[in-house]
Amino acid sequence: MSPRRRDAEGTATARAGRRAELLAVAAEVFASRGYSATTVREVADAAGILGGSLYYHFDSKESMADEILSTFLDDMWTSYDRVLAAGLGARETLAAVVAESFRCIDAHRPAVVLYQNESKHLATSPRFAYLLDSHRRFEEMWLGLLERGVREGVLRADLDRPLVYRFIRDTVWVAAGWYRPGGRLTAGEIAKQYLAMVLEGIQAHPPTP
Amino acid sequence: MSPRRRDAEGTATARAGRRAELLAVAAEVFASRGYSATTVREVADAAGILGGSLYYHFDSKESMADEILSTFLDDMWTSYDRVLAAGLGARETLAAVVAESFRCIDAHRPAVVLYQNESKHLATSPRFAYLLDSHRRFEEMWLGLLERGVREGVLRADLDRPLVYRFIRDTVWVAAGWYRPGGRLTAGEIAKQYLAMVLEGIQAHPPTP
DNA sequence: CATTCTTTCTAACAACTGTTTGGTAGAGTA
DNA sequence: TACTCTACCAAACAGTTGTTAGAAAGAATG
Question: Is residue A185 in some structural domain?
Answer without folding.
Answer: yes
